[in-house]
Amino acid sequence: MSEFMTIQTFSKRTGISKSALRYYESENLLHPIRSKNGYRLYSEDQITTAKLISSLRLAGIPIKDIQMYLKENETVRQQMIKNWIKTLKQKHHLLSVSLRYLESYQKNDQVYLLEKNAEKIVWFVAESNPGKFGNHFRQRKRELERLNISINNGYLRYLSGKESIKAQIGFGVSDDVEIEGLSDIDSIEIMSPCLCIALPYTSPMTEIQKGYAQLMNYAIEHGLIPAGPIIEWYRGEHFEDLDLLMPVARISKMEGRS
């Protein structure tokens, strides 16, 4: 056998198409030498590399990550593999949630999927009877507006109680907002991005527990595991639009998601 192989022979030896081999070369992943006539020539030891590149591509690894992987030492490579595994597991979970939603769509077209972006939230603690937190929202909203802080969304997160409810009420604000001059802030949180199942709620606020139960039952029926508590999500100038959100999958920004 000759020391080098033509692209046709190399393609047969690896099972990788000639067009894919040319693409790997154009992306600086695989480097054949050129004969005097300009033909690509591959060496025996490039077979393993070509198969590795093909396998990583089939696993959904981005070109830029493969380029980096091929240049790194074994320690860095092992860490990259761990990161890829974590990313693929997350994608698998997101696909599983999406599939279960689609399978249930005809049975319950009220519940929908929502990808909630990261958001900075200012939280206050309040106590009231179920469905009676309107005054607390209005008071805190006025405090923020007096400081010229724009509000994107309103939130309520249950803490404890049954007849008298203790809850956090929160307001989504811009990331660059400095929170000064506010009284009784409970916490400031950067809410992580997540995939949620969501239920629009239009019934009387005094019966909102039924909405919680409906969303929880939907999750149980379709095998969805909550990734956090149910949150009331308010929008509109007067917070007139309300949906109940249940996170079912966290979404992390990792290298290689593109």
Please explain how this structure is put together:
- By secondary structure, this protein is α+β, with helices and mostly antiparallel strands.
- 38% of the residues lie in helices and 27% in strands.
- The strands form 2 sheets. Strands 4-9-11-10-6-7-5-8 form an 8-stranded antiparallel beta sheet. It has a 3-stranded antiparallel beta sheet with strand order 1-3-2.
- Strand 10 (231-235) and strand 11 (241-250) form a beta hairpin.
- The longest helix is centred in the middle third of the chain and has 31 residues, at 74-104.
- The chain is elongated.
- Residues 254-258 have low confidence and may be disordered.
- Pfam families: MerR_1.
Short description:
The chain has 258 residues and is an alpha+beta fold. The protein has helices spanning 7-14, 18-26, 46-58, 63-71, 74-104, 134-146, 208-221; strands at 4-6, 33-34, 40-43, 112-116, 119-128, 153-160, 165-173, 185-191, 194-200, 231-235, 241-250.
Helix and strand arrangement:
Elements: E1 4-6, H1 7-14, H2 18-26, E2 33-34, E3 40-43, H3 46-58, H4 63-71, H5 74-104, E4 112-116, E5 119-128, H6 134-146, E6 153-160, E7 165-173, E8 185-191, E9 194-200, H7 208-221, E10 231-235, E11 241-250
Antiparallel strand pairs: 1-3, 2-3, 4-9, 5-7, 5-8, 6-7, 6-10, 9-11, 10-11
